[in-house]
Amino acid sequence: MTDQRPQYGEIATLEEQRKAAGLPPLDEMPPAAAAPAPEPASGGAATARPRPVDRFITIGLLAYGLVNVVMTGLSYLDFPTAMNEMMSVLGVDGEFTNFAQGKVWGTVAAIVLAAGWSLTAFFSIRRLRGGKASWWVPLAGAAVTLLVASICAAIPLMNDPAFIDFVAKTAGQ
């Protein structure tokens, strides 16, 4: 007759399984230390929850911002034309003539726009992947980037003779 003993794990008791696996009996095992509880992720949630509306708004704002950056950046690269158009809208007599500073600061402003959008997109995507609210990141990034780019564009404009004359006339009214 062949050996009819149960194979490992079939009908064997827990002690028989441990013995067959080469492990000590349960009564000889030291008590297990309590495992520390897992820490919740930041924001108090144990897991990141998908936010489809937030994702849609964030991606929409980033797309709108990219179109704005491309269009405005291209106009900053042709700074004299952009400033002439702006000056005519304001009613300034004369044309923009500060070409040297306009070329330098227009290029700087275009680079600031591109870098600002890139950083904004990076932080937005990072927050989206982390399951955190991110709709506000494109708005804050646009505000900061626009402020810095506007300062860059204002430098050559404030040194243009026609614009200085316009500001002096307007202030003297």
- Mean of all residue-level pLDDT scores: 86
Structural class: mainly alpha
Number of helices: 6
Number of strands: 0
State the shape.
rod-shaped
Tell me roughly what share of residues is in helical segments: 55-70%
H-E order: HHHHHH
Major sheet description: none
Percent range for β-strand residues: under 5%
Quote the distance from N terminus to C terminus.
119 Å
| Cα-based radius of gyration, to the nearest Å | 34 Å
Low-confidence stretches: none
Map the helices and strands:
Blueprint lengths: L13 H7 L31 H26 L1 H12 L8 H31 L6 H23 L2 H12 L1
Helix pairs in contact: 2-4, 2-5, 4-5
Report on the architecture of this protein:
By secondary structure, the chain is an all-alpha fold. Helix content is 64%, strand content 0%.
Provide a quick synopsis of the model:
By secondary structure, the protein is an all-alpha fold. The chain contains 6 helices and no strands.
